[in-house]
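Record passed on underneath.
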Amino acid sequence: PELNAYAPDFERPTLDGLPIRLTELRGAPLVLNFWATWCGPCIVEMPILQSIFEARHGTGLHILAVNLGEPAPVIRAWQQANHLTFDLLIDEQQTVAALYSLRGQPSTYVISPDGIITDIFFGPVSEGALIAALERLNG
């Protein structure tokens, strides 16, 4: 998907087995991140995502981090070790990555409350750049 296009819909389970469908989260800004535990830049980026989530989840912000092909026990151990409280989604067959024609990881999409992709970051995103992208959604 490209900028200013609707974000392709998908449904994947969280680590708790609860299904999350992207279109059901419309009405609030959303950050969609693709990552893996073995990806060095992803490891650097996760504390940034956690910081932004802690600061903004009360305003309705959703962060979905789609793991690229790893099993749930590996993801859960990593989540606990890094104290992540936003939703980590399991995508062992990498169907969501294929849907988004993923070029590499990390990749981060900022999605408006009406489901439009407003920013795309390939590679690690800085806290300032991600906050600026979210602020633009507020007009």
